Amino acid sequence: MFQFCKTKVIAIFTAVVLLSVLIGCAKEKPIKLGHIGDYNGICEMYSTSEKKGQLLAIEEINAAGGILGRQLEYLDRDGALNVDIGVRELKDLILREKIDFALGPCSSSEALALQAVTGDYNIIRISAIAQTEAQTVDNYNGTTSNSNYGF
Length: 151
Fold this sequence. Notes:
This protein is α/β, with parallel strands linked by helices.
């Protein structure tokens, strides 16, 4: 009987150790960044430059170990300088790709539409190019709906 208990304890101990090793080896889930660029018309140059800068920063951050051990993953979509396409692409990034943060776009009209989407899904969005006051100044005085998530 003692032998049976000893075998059982060893089996449980081995299972716990193996499970701990497997859990420890599991990679941390990456932080997903979804970018809506506008790769045609007047915004092509700006969106391309923005993307290159973001990719360079992500490469450096990931090479240094990521953020709190989590790598950054970059997902890029073309908003085609069109509000409807930009909204569709952002919703796809949020719902299908499960992004954590949104970046872009170039166009201010597109940025306002994306601001409503990110607000609906509680996703922070940073727009380095689009500069309408409706997404920045109005953001802080509460006159823009769902404005707490756009910067």
